[in-house]
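User: I'm putting together a teaching handout on how multi-component assemblies are represented. Below are the sequence lines for each component of a complex, exactly as they appear in our records. Could you produce the 3D structure of the whole assembly as C-alpha cells, so the students can see both representations side by side? Please keep the chain order the same as the input.
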Amino acid sequence: MKYFSDLQVGDSFPPQTYTITREWVDEDADFKQDDSPWLRDSSPFGGPIATLTITHGDFERFFRANGIAMSGIMPVRTQNEYSGPIMVGSDVTTTCTVVDRYERKGRDFVTLAFETTGPDGTVLIRKRDTFMQMPAVAREAGA
Amino acid sequence: MTVEVGSAIPALVVVAKNTRRQDSRERELNVHDDGAAQKMGFERGVVAGSQTAALIGQMLLRHFGTAYITTGTSDIRFVAPVFEDETLTTGGTVTDRQADGRLVCEVWIERPDGSRPVVGTATVLPSIVGSATELPS
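Assistant: Of course. Below is the structure of the complete assembly, with chains in the same order as your input.
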C-alpha cells in the first residue's frame, strides 16, 4: 500500500480506458442532482452526453488501481478545460500525472493533471485537481 | 447570444445531499462518513466536492449552452466544507470580455447566511457555437 505522502512530482500512472455507460451517467446525474435532458435523451452533439464533471472521480480510479490509500483526502481546487462532449456509450482514455506537491500550514497538498481523450484521440477534458490530506489522517497513516 | 459584462448568470438552488456517505473504503477514513469526518475535526460527513463543482458546471452549461462544453474553463476552490441538507445557491457574474471575445465569470456557491464555501472563475467563448436556448430549462 502506498500513501498520499509517497506521491512525487513526475509520477505518472498507466492510462485507464473505460466505457461511459448509460448506467454510470444515470447514477452520476442523480448524484449531482442534474436533470438535464441532454444526459438522458439527446443533445446538440447527436446523442446523450455525460455530465461535465463525470471525470471528477478519476483520482479515485487511479488511486485504487495503483494501491494508493485515500484516507482523509479532500479536494481543494479543480481546474478544468473542456474541449468537447463525452458521449454516452463511448470509450475514453485518461492519463494521470503528479505535477505539484507542497506543504502549507502543516498540511500536505498534491496536484494531479488528467487528460481525457475520446475514441479518436481527441482531447475532451484537461484538468488539474489539487488534494489535501487531513493532518490527523496523515499522522495515523504514519506519513 | 449577447452577454453583457456585469450581467448575472441565472442561479440554481439545491439542497445538498451527502450521497457518498455509504461508500465503502476498507481500512480508510472516508471524509463523507459522519464518524470518520468527526475524527478529522468536521461536525459530520462532508458532501463531495465533485457534487458542488458540478452545480457550478450545470449553471454555466444552462446559460452558455454547447459553447461551455467545447470552449469552457473553470477554476474552482473548495474553501469550506458543505454538509447534508444545506441549501445551496449557485451564483455567477460576467466580469470581463477578453480581446478574443472570451467571457470571464466569477462563480460561487452560497449558503443562506451569505457565506461562500465554493468560489472560482470560469471562462467561455460563446461566439463559436451554442446558445443558452439549446438547453430546455
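A couple of points students might notice: Confidence is low (pLDDT under 50) at residues 129-133 of chain B. The longest strand of chain B covers residues 87-97.
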